[in-house]
Specification:
The protein has three helices and six strands. With 164 residues, it is of the alpha+beta class. The protein has a single domain, classed as 3-Layer(aba) Sandwich (Cytidine Deaminase, domain 2). The chain has a six-stranded mixed sheet. Helix 2 packs parallel to helix 3. The termini are far apart. The protein binds zinc ion.
């Protein structure tokens, strides 16, 4: 028997002003992205902004549906939009933020497992790290340098990948 331990490292900034201007901007873009959130059921608005290598920014938000499982998280809306039209332009960073009027959010919102798996696929697909900024408005920002460290047991089977 072997015991394995996996360590996850990330940086916590007390507030957005401690970030570099480009990262502050990306967090602000994630806030702007919440404007298009369709969240009449949870009243939980989520915004995501992708910074692409070219400098282009992609905005997305959570899109709920009255048939609940038909909705989609902001992260996957953003990343599938990227995959459908911008996959030749690697995603350098993704900022995610959230807001609800129902209770205060005191720490960053983290992504669901399905979104982490999709983020991991993007990282594999573009063969470069996808940096993640989890931004709590008026609160801390968590910065994770790559998705692999957030999802060490992601599903990925090399034998399923078609040669390109
Ligand atoms: Zn999700």
């Amino acid at each position: 028997m072997k015991q394995h331990d996996i360590k996850v490292s990330f940086k916590e900034y007390d507030n957005i002003t401690e970030l570099k201007p480009a990262d502050q901007n990306l967090c602000a873009e994630a806030v702007n992205a919440m404007a298009t959130s369709h969240s009449p059921y949870s009243k939980f608005r989520v915004g995501a902004a992708l910074q692409l290598q070219s400098g282009k920014i992609i905005h997305a938000s959570n899109q709920e549906n009255v048939a609940y499982p038909s909705g989609l998280c902001a992260e996957r809306v953003a990343l599938f939009h990227w995959g459908a039209g911008h996959a030749d332009d690697p995603v350098v960073s993704m900022a995610v933020t959230a807001h609800t009027d129902d209770f205060p959010l005191l720490k960053p919102v983290t992504s669901c497992g399905a979104c982490l798996q999709v983020m991991a696929e993007v990282e594999k697909r573009q063969n470069s790290p996808l940096r993640v900024l989890l931004y709590c408005i008026d609160g801390p920002v968590w910065v994770i340098n790559d998705v692999k460290s957030m999802m060490p047991f992601m599903f990925f089977e090399e034998r399923l990948v078609q040669p390109v």
